[in-house]
Design goal:
The protein has 19 helices and eleven strands. By secondary structure, the chain is of the alpha+beta class. The strands form two sheets. The protein has a six-stranded antiparallel sheet with strand order 5-4-3-11-7-8. Strands 2-1-6-9-10 form a five-stranded antiparallel sheet, with no helix packed on it. Helix 7 packs antiparallel against helix 8. It starts with a helix and ends with a strand.
Length: 506
């Protein structure tokens, strides 16, 4: 009887060992796959690069609209791809493996592994970054704070990103003391990283501008000079307070006032000022700069077809059509956001636990509240458009001139279709490692190659050239990804391996 008991005990432990081993391998593979796809989706290093460019523009070249377009294009490719493989589904066997792994990690005083929590964190990070890049800084700041509170003891990339970008949002909101705390934390917790480099850059800007502000006040400058200096140093709240103390404003000062309001996220107030400056006849230079801001706002930050149509017409009147064309060209490379639709249209799977389904619903509710806050600004903007008697352009309406130009520019362009259905036009398509680099004129967009599904010529009578890494060049009007992940042209018999695709152009 004892031997039988020992035999069953041995069998049980053997079965548990085999099952646990398989479960641990499964979890580790999920962790590895998720980590690779997470890095591909989030692209933290590129986000640091674009943040540096935005900081340079903010403090050194505020009216360089071409750089601003390039930054917007780059930012649209960060955290804005639909990779279904990042949707983790933990089964009963995976939970066993996760429990074993976390027990061992606990014995070694290591934090537990929480794949599902990481997935939720990424989802919220995507939303916060979308709010940040569309200049809705208070909403982004609120979401970053929630993420920081939920990951207080973490030293992950997500935590570094959260602290750094929260600090940036606080700087833009004028709350530089809190920003300094966040950025110092990044520098101390993540030394030697691109996060710490950017944090140090922002800290130096804060300290330098604080010193400049004290020097300016000690020199007793006139309010007119002080306002301009404060604006150049990025202190937008103080800029507005100084301008409000003046009995009247020149056109240049009114422009500075509008720019300060725009940088602080008060878009509707800024737009009203810009429209007035565009309509005035005394200062053409100010009118041109104000009109470019309207073009950028209407295309990138607070999409509004009425403002775009008005500012395009004004650009022609002011002799600044090239700027309007550049902004329109850059806009065509900006990826439409998927994060909002992804979250709100997702259903709570029955395979998830009750707590997990509730968590997803809580995230949805939080996003809906944030979107309602964002819509308040849209409503105010619509009221400005009506008040300033800007002709209304409906959602599906395309102005005649814009439609004609679009048809002309389709010649010898490549339509790139992504797996989630989004489409982008470009005139060159390069591949570097796992990245697809789309070029259109002077602008470029980077995105994960794996999300590209199909390329086709916009001109039905023209083939584009396809270059492989071995130097072979073929031609086709269509290139489609196969189920195996390779590429095949319209008349090709053999597919092109994904790793061999190098360049496509006319």
């Amino acid at each position: 009887m004892r031997k039988l008991f020992l035999f069953f005990l041995f069998g049980f432990f053997l079965f548990f060992f085999v099952l646990s081993s398989q479960a641990i391998v499964g979890v580790k593979l999920q962790e590895l796959r998720f980590g690779i796809l997470r890095d591909q989706l989030m692209n933290y290093e590129l986000s640091s690069q674009t943040l540096r460019e935005r900081l340079k523009q903010m403090f050194l070249s505020k009216d360089d609209y071409l750089t601003e377009i390039k930054v917007n294009i780059l930012e649209s490719g960060i955290m804005n791809s639909e990779l279904q493989e990042t949707d983790i589904r933990i089964g009963y066997r995976d939970r066993l493996g996760l429990a074993v792994i976390n027990f061992v990690r606990l014995l070694n005083f290591k934090p537990s592994l929480e794949l599902e929590e990481q997935q939720k964190t990424i989802l919220r990070l995507q939303f916060a970054f979308y709010m940040e890049r569309t200049r809705k800084f208070p909403i982004a700041s609120k979401k970053y704070q929630e993420l920081e509170d939920d990951n207080q003891n973490s030293l992950s990339d997500e935590m570094a990103f959260t602290l750094l970008h929260h600090g940036y949002c606080l700087v833009m909101m004028g709350d530089r003391d809190r920003a300094f705390v966040k950025l110092t934390k990044v520098r101390d917790l993540f030394p030697g990283t691109h996060y710490a480099e950017n944090a140090s850059l922002l800290i130096s800007f804060i300290e330098e501008n604080k010193k400049k502000k004290e020097d300016l006040k000690s020199k007793s400058k006139k309010p007119e000079e002080l306002a301009y200096s404060l604006f150049q140093s990025g202190d937008y709240e103080e800029t507005l307070r100084t301008l409000e103390s003046l009995p009247s404003l020149t056109k240049d000062q009114s422009y500075i006032k509008a720019r300060a309001m725009e940088e602080l996220g008060r878009t509707s107030n800024a737009v009203q000022e810009y429209i007035q400056l565009v309509k005035q006849k005394e200062n053409r230079d100010v009118a041109v700069r104000a009109n470019r801001r309207l073009l950028l706002i209407g295309n990138f930050y607070q999409e509004n077809k009425s403002i775009v149509a008005f500012s395009k017409a004004e650009a022609m009147r002011l002799g600044d059509s090239k700027a309007a064309e550049n902004i329109e060209e850059g806009k065509s490379l900006v990826l439409k956001p998927v994060i909002i639709e992804k979250i709100l249209s997702s259903s709570s799977s029955e395979t998830l636990s009750k707590d997990e389904r509730q968590e997803i619903e809580n995230i949805k509710e939080s996003i809906k509240l944030s979107l309602n806050e964002a819509k308040d600004e849209e409503t105010k903007l619509a009221e400005v458009v009506t008040r300033e008697k800007i002709p209304e352009v409906k959602e599906n309406e395309i102005p005649e001139k814009q439609e004609t130009k679009t048809k002309e520019t389709l010649f010898k362009q490549i339509k790139v279709k992504l797996r989630d259905g989004r489409e982008i036009l470009c005139d060159q398509f390069h591949v570097e490692g796992g990245l697809a680099i789309l070029k259109l004129g002077d602008f470029g967009l980077n995105l994960p190659l794996d999300i590209v599904q199909r390329l086709e010529s916009q001109n039905k009578g023209a083939n584009f050239k396809i270059k492989q890494s071995n130097g072979n060049i073929t031609e086709s009007s269509i290139l489609t990804r196969t189920e195996q992940g390779d590429w095949i042209g319209k008349n090709d018999k053999e597919p092109i391996p994904n790793s061999e695709l190098k360049e496509i152009w006319f």
